[in-house]
From TrEMBL:
It holds the Pfam family Peripla_BP_6. InterPro entries: BCAA_transport (IPR051010), Leu-bd (IPR028081), Peripla_BP_I (IPR028082). Keywords: Signal. It comes from Fibrella rubiginis. Belongs to the leucine-binding protein family. This is ABC transporter substrate-binding protein. It comes from the Bacteria. Residues 2-332 form the Leucine-binding protein domain.
Amino acid sequence: MTIGLLLPQSSLYPTLPFDLVEGLRAGLDEVSLADTKLVLEGIDYGTNPANVQTKAQKLLLQEGADVVVGMVSKRVGDALAPMFATANRLLLVLDVIGEFFSGQPSASEAPTSHVYYHSLQTCAGTWLAGRDAAALGPVIQTASYYDSGYLQGYAVSQGVAAGGSTMGQWAISPLKTADFTLAQLQTGLEQDAGNSIVALYTADMAEQFFAGYVALPPHRDVPIWGGPLLLEEQTLAKVPYQTEGIRGYVAWSQTLDNPLNQRFQEALRRRGRHPNLFSLLAYEAASILLTYLADLSAIDQLATSSFDSPRGTITMNATTHYTSGPLYEATVLASDTGHCRLHPGAPVSTNDPIDHLLAQGQLNTYANWFNTYLCI
């Protein structure tokens, strides 16, 4: 068996390609597919669908890949779908954001028939944060220009609506570090635009938010919910603990106390890698591949598949072809070093955000970015 891997680069998480490759290799070992051949193709940031299609075609035709795994955006995944349907092969997309409710191009065959997405469900997490924040009244959403280009911001507003409240303000900060400011958020707080904040920032932009929020002029305390990537553990470990009570929902934590999580982390450390969200995503993908490779002619069996993972039971949604699993209520606390650490609480079902977002209908028009999330 041969597995092709479409491998992106990321300036936000420079270790991302290594995390994906070693996570997948560790997962293949776990499910007794260690002898499977792995062929890699770099796709830069994955922004050029034609280039990605050329790389995928090479994996299928020249390398004889039985399945292709890639971290690409949903737009690119939809563009690749007809080729994979023609080849009768699976494209398994490693997905962080979970934009399962975005529109699909029209085609004679459903474009996702040979494309499945294994997801960390960021949009479901931001929906839950918006719903919780709405209990206090109008909500301010603050986000970087980059993060606001994805549908997680829409998911926040839908969560707020489901919680019975309204958006009081959208405060968007510039992308470049040199231009970063929370001036819009400061104005909103001074004008009492909302009773709570949902903050969507990633990697170094998350660090800028934490530092910038502490530096704002004194204002009344406003509860803060963070998006799942604001609460990512590698990021929190770099941030001094100065703002109390930040909470949110996360897909996974290294502190989840279960045997599968321990085995995953031990497997990554044996490979010289620090286990994180992205190596976990690739590690779990091996369980999906095990089901598919057992019978290449029965790709439809994936639509109702499930497996146990370090973060709980993962189930494929037959309607969206996206995996779903529990999210965990989480709070940011102080570590022994004085930095932030994540404290995960009870698992929460993602059925409510998935059902609500699907009920709104497919969104055919939004930002025109082909970047997959994290890949700039």
